[in-house]
Each structure stands twice: as C-alpha cells, then as structure tokens.
Amino acid sequence: MRWKNVSIIGLGLLGGSLGKAMVHRQLAERVTGLVRRREAITDAVDAGVVHQAVMEPSKAVQEADLVVLCTPVLQIPSMVEQILPHLKAGCVVTDVGSVKCELVEKLEPLIASAGATYLGSHPMAGSEQQGLGHANAQLFVGATCVVTPSESTPAKVLAEVTALWELVGGHPRVMSAQEHDQCVAYASHLPHALAAMLSWSSLNPSQGKHPPALCSSGFRDTTRVASGSPEMWADIFISNRRAIMQSLSSHQDLCAQLAQWLEAGDREPILQWLSQSKSRRDDWLVTYLNRLEQAENPEDQLPLKKH
C-alpha cells in the first residue's frame, strides 16, 4: 500500500519517527507535518521527517488520505475540532495515543460527521527521549502496534491502518478499546507511576544526602521511564484513570501481603513469590528480545519500497 497524501499532526518522537519511516520507505507521495514553531518547519524537512511542514492545521490536512494524530492525548479532541471542516471525504484518521476508550467515544461520531473514518491505534514504542531531534525511522520495527476497531469500523479501514503499522516494521494486534486500556494500565501506565514514585521518594531531599549516593544501576534501570514527558503522562493518567486505579489497588493488596510476610518473618512465601516473579519475567524477556532482534539486525530490517 502507498498513500498519496499523509498528514502527521505533531512531530514529537512518535510523530517524527512515523514521518521519517514513511519518507524513508517511500510509503507516501507527500508527507505533511504540523508543527508549532516556525523554525521546526525547516528542521523537519532537513531531517527527512516530512516532505513539507506547516503551522496551520487546516493546511496540514488538506487533501490528506490518511491523518495520524500525534499530540498529547487530552489535546487530540480539540485538534480534531480544528481540522474537522478541512478533512477530505473518505479520509482515514488514526492516532498514537496510549488511551483509547475516551478517544473512540468522542472521535468516532465526530469524524464520521465529516464523511471520514476514525480508527484508534497505539504503537507500543518510544522512550524517555522527547522531540523531533530524536526521530528514528526504525522506532516501530519489532514493536507491538495495537489497533482498536469498533463494531462500525469498515473492514477496508481496519486493513489500511493495520497495513500502516506493518509497513513501518510493527506487529499489529487488534483488540477492543476497553481491553486495550485495561491491559496498558498494568503493562505501561502503572510501571511509569511506580518509577515516578521511586524517584519522588528515594531522591527526596528530606531523605538526606546519603540515599541518592547509594542509588546505582538497579535504581537507574527501574526508574528510567520517570524521565518521560510530564505533560504527556499527566494526560495519560487522567484519561485512563479508572483502569490505573484498579491496577494500583491490586498492587496495594500485594504490598499488604508482603508486609504480612515480613512481619511474621515468613521466608518461604517470599521465596516462592520472588521465584515466580523471576520466572515470569525471564519468560517474557525471551519473547521481547526475539522481537528486538529484528529491529537491531540490519539484515531483518524492511527494504525500501520501490515505485
């Protein structure tokens, strides 16, 4: 599949990386990016992220066959209202937001009113790095990319959005918006909250000068994601608050259980818990590293499209 005109709304890490992948693999005749700063227009083109960049939402989506929304989650609905009058009939709109239920509920009927179709998606890719300067054409290679169709999603649109993530190297996985939000609360959102908690408490000045000096590689690895964008993660926490609250509750129960074992000095259940946790992570790590091997081995990278 090759698109004629693609619009990417927001050229941060994800939007910039998607644009760069599409330009690099010649997946569209023209990729247009929406930026907020005038100097970013030249930067984006020079970096090979887009063919052209503009600052006006209306110009960004003119004649677009595919629009990908890459702004923070809570900003997506207001951005859609700005571009809605300028969407071409038949246009497909997707996004990279890590929360789906609220977006599907708000955007699907709104975008349908303009004669276009919305289908949510969420590439499980990225890092604590931010901004256009970190755009990477290989960011999605080997990454799970969730697509969340509703009962009214046309099969043709589902195939098109699935193809988008396949063509930039990802592994699409189709699930409902509800299932997605529940899963990522445990797999992505809670880990970020825990990393922020550790950074907040262990590096709190009230702890004195010694605790930070004792934090080493284990602390660094465990808290890496706490360096991510506070603006983006605040939006995510609010948007998926119900599922995140459920995940926090389950971990509160586990903390209480561990406290009971410690109070009783009961080593055996602690050993069993740690052993099972290690086994689960080791099994997951094998699968994860196999996926990453494709991204890290140039021989496995997708070839450029020839037209």
Question: How would you portray this structure in words?
Answer:
The chain has 307 residues and is an alpha/beta fold. It folds into 2 domains: 3-175, NAD(P)-binding Rossmann-like Domain (Rossmann fold); 179-294, 6-phosphogluconate dehydrogenase C-terminal fold, CATH 1.10.3660.10. It has 12 helices and 9 strands. Strands 3-2-1-4-5-6 form a 6-stranded parallel β-sheet. The protein is globular and about 70 Å long. Residues 298-307 have low confidence and may be disordered.
- Radius of gyration, CA atoms, in whole angstroms: 21 Å
Q: What is the chain-wise order of helices and strands?
A: EHEHEHEHEHEEEHEHHHHHH
- Give the helix proportion (percent range): 40-55%
- Structure annotation, total helices: 12
Which CATH first-tier class of the largest domain would you pick?
Alpha Beta
Shape: globular
SS-based class: alpha/beta
Tally the structural domains.
2
Query: Which residue ranges are poorly predicted, with pLDDT under 50 across at least 5 consecutive positions?
Result: 298-307
- The percentage of residues in β strands lies in 5-15%
Reading side by side through the largest sheet, how are the strands ordered?
3-2-1-4-5-6
| Largest β sheet strand count, sense and barrel closure | 6 strands, parallel
Mean pLDDT over the residues: 91
- CATH H level of the largest domain: which superfamily? NAD(P)-binding Rossmann-like Domain
